[in-house]
Write a structure and sequence with these properties.
2 domains, six-stranded mixed beta sheet, 23% strand, 39 strands, globular, 760 residues, GH92 mannosidase fold, Beta-galactosidase, Chain A, domain 5, alpha+beta
C-alpha cells in the first residue's frame, strides 16, 4: 500500500510539473519568403550547427558585378522555389548579408551526376523537385520528399552534430553527394581549399576553408555513415594549375583515401533495398578533425534518429517554457515562432572539450563559460540582448564574456562589431557591443570584471582610425565628405557613448562618465533647427544643401532615411522633443511619420527595405526606428503608443511564410514582437527601464532563472480594447507608463486593464 501511495505521489508530481507542449506552435517556415530570410531546417537552441535545405545555387557575382538576386538567398532557402539542391550545415537566420552554407549533402539514385543542375530542369543534376505538401518543418526536425528520386529526407541535430536519415528506394546505384564547392553568397574563389580523408568505408574527416564575409574561416568536419559504402570517388574542378606535384601516380578519382583541392565534390555509393534507411552524422568543429570526431562521439554516439530528434525537441520545449502565455491561436504561433527565432543566434562556438579558434586564428579554451559567435550587434543590441537579460541571463553573461575574449584576441583591440566564426566582418555601423555590455552590467547579469569590460568599451569607442571615430571625437560629428553614412554613424556613436557613461556612473568612474555623457550629446550637431531633421554636415560645419528627408540614398544614413533616423535619440527623447520645438510639434512629427505615404522610389536603391515592412513612413522592417512607436510615452498622448504598437503587431507579424515585414536579423524583429506582445519594451538599453505599450496576450508567466516568476495579466483583452485604462503593479496602481528591470527580476505581478477608448 505504501509503495502504491509513493508511486501515486511521484506520478502526480510528474503531471503537475509537466511542461506544456509549446513546440507545436513553432513554424520554422515563417519568414522564409521575401524579406524574412529565415531557414526551415533543424537546429537546437543556440546550436553551433544549423542543418537546412538549399533551394538554388545563385552566385554572388554575375558578369563581373553584384547579382541582386543572390539577396533572396541569405538563408539558403526560398519558399517559392520548386527544387532542393541539398542540405548544408551552417546558416544565418534572417540576415541582410550572408555567408556559410558549409558541407552540402544530397542523396540521389541512378546515373551519377556531380553537378547541381538547373532549377528549370532538376534532372540535369543532383538537385530534386519537391512540394510543400510533402514538407514538414518543426523545431529541431525537418522532413521532405525528394520527388525526382523518391527519397524521403529527414534532418535533426544536437548542438554540434547534424543527423540525416534518408529512406531510399531499391537501387543498385544509390549515392550520397558531398559538395565542398557549394556555399551561400558563393563566387569564384570563395572556397580557398578543401580536404577530405577517408578513414574507412563509413567514416570521413576533413575541412573547408573559405574567404567571404568571414575572410579567414575554416570549418572542420567528421562524417559517419550507418552503412558501409561499396565505392567512393571525387571530381576536381580546379582546372589547369601550373604546378600539380606528383599526385598523378594515383587514380585520385576513384577510391583514393586522401582528397584535396579548391573545387571538389565527392560521391559515396551504396546499394539499397526498398525503404532502406541510410543515416549520416556530420559533426563540425572550429578547431580540428579530431575535435569534430570527439563532438560526434560525445553528442550522438549511436544511430537512433528518433532519440536525437526527441532530445532536440525536448531542448526546444524546455527553452520555450521559460515564457508561458495564454492568447489566441495565431498569437501563440507568432509568439512561439518568435521565441524560436530569438533562441537560434548567437551560436555556440566551441567544441565539447571547450576549445575554439579565436580571432587571432589560434586555439583557445573557454574557462568557465560557453564561447559564442554570430553577433549581429547593429540589430540585436536593441531588443534581443535585453530579452536575454530577462529570460537567458546566464547565456547573455557568457555572450558578454565571449565579446571580451574577442576584444583580447583582436589585433585592433576592439570589441566585436559583427562577428562570426573567428572573424569580424565589420558590417554595419556603431560600436554596439558597448550597449550589450553596459546593459548586462547595469542589470547585474554580467559576472565578470566590470571595470575591465568598461575599459574595453572605452578603447573601442576611442579607436580613432575606425569609421570616422577620430573626426567624431575632435569635431562632434562625422563630415559628409569622409563617409556616406556620416549622420547615422554620429547618432549611433552618441547613443553608445551614453551607454558607456551609464556604465561608468554605476562603477563610480565619474571622470569617464563626464567625458562620455558629453560625447552622447553629439547627435545635436547633426540636427538642423531650420527644418527639424537630422542632416549631413560638411567639414566646414554647414549643412549639406542637397537634402531629401525621405530618400535612403546619398543622405548620410545606413538603411534608412532622415524621417526615421531623426528620432534616433533613444537615450534622451525629452531633449530631442525640445529640439523639435516642444511636445506638440514632437507629437505632430510622430503622427506624420506613421500616417504619410512613402513612395516606392524613396527606397528603390535599398534592398533591405520593401513595401511590406513600412507603415506610413515608419520602416519597421529595418531596425533604426524600432523604439519610435514608444516615444509617445514621453508626451501627454501615450495612448498613441498603444494604438501604434497594436497596428505594428498586426501588420508586420503573420503566421505565414511571408509573415515577417523585414529581415529577422538574428532575432531582433522577433525580440521586438515578444516584448511588445507582453506589453513593454526597452527603449534605451543601458537604462534599465522599459516603456509600456499594449499587450496582445491574455496572460503570461516568465520563469526567471533565479527561481522567481514575473506574471502578467491582461483584463478586457480584445482587438478593440487596445488602450490601457489602468496598470497595477503587485496590486497597486502604477504611476506613469514605465517599469524597471529590477521590478521584473525580483518577481512580481503586472496587471493591465484595457478598454476601447484612449485614456488621455
Amino acid at each position: 500500500m505504501k509503495r502504491l501511495l509513493f508511486l501515486s505521489i511521484v506520478l502526480l508530481s510528474t503531471i503537475s510539473h509537466a511542461q506544456p507542449d509549446l513546440i507545436k506552435y513553432v513554424r520554422p517556415l515563417i519568414g522564409t519568403e521575401k524579406m524574412g530570410h529565415t531557414y526551415p531546417g533543424a537546429t537546437v537552441p543556440f546550436g553551433a550547427l544549423q542543418l537546412s535545405p538549399e533551394t538554388d545555387t545563385i552566385p554572388y557575382e554575375k558578369n563581373g558585378k553584384y547579382n541582386p538576386d543572390v539577396y533572396k538567398y541569405c538563408a539558403g532557402y526560398r519558399y517559392e522555389d520548386k527544387s532542393i539542391v541539398g542540405f548544408s550545415h551552417t546558416h544565418f537566420s534572417g540576415t541582410g548579408h550572408s555567408d556559410l552554407g558549409d558541407i552540402l549533402i544530397m542523396p540521389t539514385i541512378g546515373t551519377l551526376q556531380l553537378n547541381p543542375g538547373t532549377a528549370d530542369n532538376t534532372k540535369s543534376g543532383y538537385r530534386s523537385a519537391f512540394s510543400h505538401s510533402n514538407e514538414i518543418a518543426q523545431a529541431g526536425y525537418y522532413k521532405v520528399k525528394l520527388d525526382d528520386d523518391n527519397i524521403l529526407a529527414e534532418l535533426t541535430t544536437s548542438t554540434r552534430v547534424g543527423m540525416h536519415q534518408y529512406t531510399f528506394p531499391a537501387s543498385e546505384q544509390s549515392h550520397i553527394i558531398l559538395d565542398l564547392i557549394s556555399g551561400i553568397y558563393n563566387y569564384e574563389g570563395k572556397t580557398v581549399y578543401a580536404y577530405v580523408r577517408v578513414i574507412n568505408d563509413s567514416l570521413l574527416t576533413g575541412y573547408r576553408q573559405s574567404s567571404g564575409w568571414g575572410r579567414t574561416r575554416t570549418v572542420y568536419f567528421a562524417i559517419a555513415f550507418s552503412k558501409a559504402c561499396f565505392q567512393y570517388g571525387q571530381a576536381n574542378y580546379d582546372g589547369k594549375q601550373m604546378y600539380r606535384g606528383f599526385w598523378g601516380k594515383f587514380d585520385q578519382k576513384n577510391n583514393f583515401p586522401e582528397i584535396a583541392g579548391k573545387k571538389i565534390r565527392l560521391h559515396v555509393d551504396f546499394k539499397t533495398k526498398e525503404n532502406e534507411k541510410i543515416k549520416i552524422k556530420v559533426a563540425l568543429s572550429p578547431v580540428s578533425q579530431h575535435n569534430a570526431l570527439e563532438n560526434m562521439q560525445s553528442e550522438i554516439p549511436d544511430w537512433d534518429f528518433e532519440k536525437v530528434k526527441t532530445q532536440a525537441q525536448t531542448l526546444w520545449n524546455k527553452e520555450l517554457n521559460k515564457l508561458v502565455i495564454e492568447a489566441p491561436e495565431d498569437t501563440k504561433v507568432n509568439f512561439y515562432t518568435a521565441m524560436y527565432h530569438t533562441f537560434i543566434n548567437p551560436t555556440v562556438y566551441m567544441d565539447v572539450n571547450g576549445e575554439y579558434k579565436g580571432l587571432d586564428q589560434d586555439v583557445h579554451k573557454a574557462d568557465g563559460f560557453t564561447n559564442y559567435s554570430t553577433f549581429s550587434l547593429w540589430d540585436t543590441y536593441r531588443a534581443l540582448h535585453p530579452f536575454f537579460n530577462l529570460i537567458q541571463p546566464a547565456r547573455n553573461n557568457d555572450m558578454v564574456q565571449s565579446m571580451m575574449m574577442h576584444y583580447k584576441q583582436s589585433a585592433l583591440h576592439m570589441l566585436p562589431i559583427w562577428s562570426h566564426y573567428a572573424n569580424d566582418n565589420w558590417c554595419m555601423s556603431g560600436y554596439h557591443a558597448v550597449s550589450v555590455i553596459a546593459d548586462a552590467i547595469i542589470k547585474d547579469v554580467y559576472k565578470g570584471n566590470a571595470n575591465e569590460a568598461l575599459n574595453a568599451c572605452i578603447e573601442t569607442a576611442d579607436h580613432r582610425s575606425y569609421e570616422g571615430i577620430g573626426t567624431y571625437m575632435d569635431g562632434g560629428f562625422i563630415p559628409a565628405e569622409s563617409s556616406g553614412i556620416s549622420v547615422s554613424n554620429t547618432l549611433e556613436y552618441a547613443y553608445d557613448d551614453w551607454c558607456i557613461a551609464q556604465l561608468a556612473k554605476k562603477l563610480n568612474r565619474m571622470d569617464i562618465y563626464d567625458r562620455f555623457i558629453k560625447r552622447s550629446t553629439n547627435w545635436q550637431n547633426n540636427f538642423n533647427p531650420a527644418n527639424g531633421f537630422m542632416q549631413a554636415k560638411l567639414i566646414n560645419g554647414s549643412f549639406k544643401k542637397e537634402f531629401d528627408p525621405l530618400s535612403t540614398n546619398g543622405q548620410g544614413f545606413i538603411e534608412g532615411n532622415s524621417w526615421n533616423y531623426s528620432f534616433f535619440v533613444p537615450q534622451d527623447p525629452k531633449a530631442l522633443m525640445q529640439k523639435m520645438g516642444g511636445e506638440a510639434k514632437f507629437v505632430a512629427r510622430l503622427d506624420s511619420l506613421f500616417s504619410m505615404r512613402l513612395s516606392d522610389s524613396f527606397f528603390a536603391e535599398t534592398e533591405d527595405i520593401t513595401r511590406e515592412g513600412i507603415i506610413g513612413g515608419y520602416v519597421h522592417g529595418n531596425e533604426p526606428a524600432h523604439h519610435v512607436a514608444y516615444f509617445y510615452n514621453y508626451t501627454n498622448q501615450a495612448y498613441k503608443t498603444q494604438a501604434q504598437i497594436r497596428n505594428i503587431l498586426k501588420l508586420q507579424y503573420k503566421p505565414t511564410p511571408d509573415g515577417l515585414g523585414g529581415n529577422d536579423d538574428c532575432g531582433q524583429m522577433s525580440a521586438w514582437y515578444i516584448f511588445s506582445a507582453l506589453g513593454f519594451y526597452p527603449v534605451a538599453p543601458g537604462s534599465g527601464q522599459y516603456a509600456l505599450g499594449s499587450p496582445i496576450i491574455t496572460s503570461a508567466t516568465i520563469h526567471l532563472e533565479n527561481g522567481k516568476t514575473f506574471n502578467i495579466e491582461v483584463k478586457n483583452q480584445s482587438d478593440k480594447n487596445c488602450y490601457i485604462q489602468k496598470v497595477l503593479f503587485n496590486g497597486n496602481p502604477l504611476e506613469g507608463l514605465f517599469i524597471e528591470h529590477s521590478d521584473i527580476s525580483g518577481g512580481a505581478n503586472l496587471t493591465f486593464l484595457m478598454g476601447a477608448k484612449p485614456k488621455k
